[in-house]
Specification:
Helix content is about 35%, strand content about 30%. It is of the alpha+beta class and about 350 residues long. Strands 1, 2, 3, 4, 5, 6, 7, 8, 9, 10, 11, 12 and 13 form a 13-stranded mixed sheet that branches. It starts with a strand and ends in a 6-residue tail after the last helix.
């Protein structure tokens, strides 16, 4: 089947939504390529990416993507850059896409990627391409350009929920002795695993998200929850996904009150933890985060889901909770330009990687 691709100004999201959702229903795409995520991002940030449309021989939609355009800072100045399903503006890309790619017809991902590559090479207004959160081996990476650099590779730590069920629900038996000990101590201190409740209304979700903001305040220097645009994005995402069953806002409580809250995605038999907030420690050895994730594992194992994913990140706590892992990668492709050739030479002299 012959596929062709072209770029165009993005139409009004209300016009694009039914086409995007129809293609989503005929794809195996990740949650991050669905309209719940994409529509929430477009509604929350002042971004106007290009629309990539891939069509089949009869002119029917075969793949979509959003292509951001930006002059991004580089070692020797700014460079005209494209970003797949991102804007190229760090503030607007704060939601941090994972499992990125083309929203393509099921089984046609390779053909759609080839059409995308051909359209990219016809386009002359860029010198660098960013592909963030890409699965290793993706056909999108088969792009022959002057230079390709993998900027990062991050583990995605997961819990095999089928293994939890095989263990009779004893998730802790699958973990290391140290992690098992920490969680058991926290369970004892809290009088058992905390109760799990999902937000049932827009009003309840709004209250709980404000609680998450307050709990995260001051926890780290670059705190996404201090950004009004990011909070708006999460609020829209939760409300869209709550009504479709794709997003759960969970609150964990015991007799002492709130232990923590999680925003999780539910997609194709997987639960994926996207955001979290935990109460202050009640003792020197309290572990509210581990406790909430252990309760979430039990919650989703009982519902018959296949995996509980902690999404990309090299955090030690994610590794300690996991029973398996996969990986995602961040890539940068470059066309020839004297500017980038000079930069590449300077990086070799200074022994600085492309990610620096």
């Amino acid at each position: 089947m012959a596929f062709t691709a072209h770029f165009s100004p993005m139409p009004d999201p209300a016009e694009l939504a039914p086409r995007w959702q129809a293609l989503e229903a005929a794809s195996d795409a990740s949650f991050f390529l669905g309209w719940t995520w994409t529509g929430s991002w477009l509604e929350s940030y002042d971004v106007r990416p290009d629309l990539l449309t891939v069509t089949d021989g009869d002119g029917r939609d075969a793949a979509f993507a959003l292509i951001g355009r930006a002059m991004q800072p580089r070692l020797l100045g700014r460079c005209s850059s494209l970003s797949l399903n991102q804007s190229g503006d760090p503030a607007a890309d704060r939601p941090f896409i994972e499992y990125n790619g083309l929203l393509a017809l099921r089984g046609m991902e390779g053909e759609a990627a080839q059409a995308f590559h051909a359209a990219l090479l016809r386009r002359t207004d860029w010198r660098a391409l960013r592909l963030s959160g890409i699965a290793p081996g993706s056909p999108l990476l088969n792009l022959a350009l002057r230079r390709a650099a993998r900027l990062d590779r991050s583990p995605v730590y997961q819990v095999d929920l089928a293994a939890v069920r095989v263990a009779g629900g004893d998730y802790l038996s699958l973990l290391s002795a140290n992690t098992r000990s920490q969680i058991r101590r926290a369970i004892k201190d809290h009088g058992g695993l905390p109760a799990v409740t999902a937000a049932q209304s827009a009003e309840e979700a709004a209250r709980w998200l404000e609680e998450m903001r307050a709990l995260n305040e001051g926890r780290q220097a670059d705190n996404a929850w201090s950004d009004p645009a990011f909070r708006r994005f999460v609020a829209i995402l939760v409300e869209r996904g709550r009504t479709t069953g794709e997003v759960e806002l969970l609150r964990f409580t015991d007799e002492g009150g709130a232990v923590g809250l999680l925003v999780n995605f539910i997609h194709r038999g997987q639960a994926m933890n996207y955001q979290s907030a935990f109460a202050a420690l009640r003792s020197a050895k309290d572990k509210p985060g581990l406790l909430c994730h252990a309760a979430a594992v039990s919650h989703y194992a009982d519902r018959g889901l296949a995996l509980y994913s902690l999404l990309a990140g090299k955090d030690r706590y994610k590794q300690s909770l996991a029973t398996r892992e996969e990986a995602l990668e961040w890539w940068q492709f470059e066309r020839f330009s004297p500017h980038l050739e000079a930069e590449a030479l300077l990086r070799r002299v200074l022994k600085r990687p492309a990610s620096a």
